[in-house]
Design goal:
two-stranded antiparallel sheet; elongated; two-stranded antiparallel ribbon; 142 residues; 5 helices; WH-like_DNA-bd_sf; DNA-binding transcription factor activity; mainly alpha; Arc Repressor Mutant, subunit A; WH_DNA-bd_sf
Length: 142
């Protein structure tokens, strides 16, 4: 598939905004660095970024890379290549104890949560406006 860096950038910016991230000059510059070339490590991204902005810190680069990974825009296993798709709005993967998994879009995830909350008596004729994940990874141990 041929990537369109401008379209990818717009999709990523939209996802960052959905996560409540401010779109700063440094974040935009880091996106440009990642979109311009495939990078094999955070360190490589940092070295390229320092050439464009000597004031940028390594911690800023690492935080941005982590944020991009969390929103599904990049994949460390894929050498920091952009992996977003306009038809993939993030969504959720539910892993099951038999090593299978279920991929759910945001809208399906919301419907499942609403159905579950309604079935348990927590809500009646209400719609979810947001879900706040207070931990990065949720584990259910039974």
């Amino acid at each position: 598939m041929v990537r369109n860096p401008d379209k990818d950038k717009d999709i990523i910016i939209s996802r960052l905004k959905q996560q409540g991230c401010r779109i700063t000059k440094q974040r935009l510059m880091l996106l440009d660095v990642i979109l311009e070339e495939d990078c094999s490590s955070c360190k490589e991204i940092y070295y390229k970024a320092v050439k464009k902005d000597p004031k940028i810190g390594a911690a800023t680069v690492y935080r941005m890379v982590n944020t991009l990974e969390e929103i599904g825009a990049i994949n460390r296993k894929n050498m920091y290549r952009i992996t977003c798709d306009e038809n993939d709005n993030g969504g959720y993967t539910v892993r099951l104890n038999d090593d299978s998994s279920i991929n759910l879009s945001e809208s399906k995830w919301s419907k499942i949560i609403e159905s579950g909350l309604e079935a348990c008596g927590y809500i009646k004729n209400q719609k979810i406006t947001s879900v706040v994940d207070r931990k990065k990874a949720v584990s259910v141990n039974k």
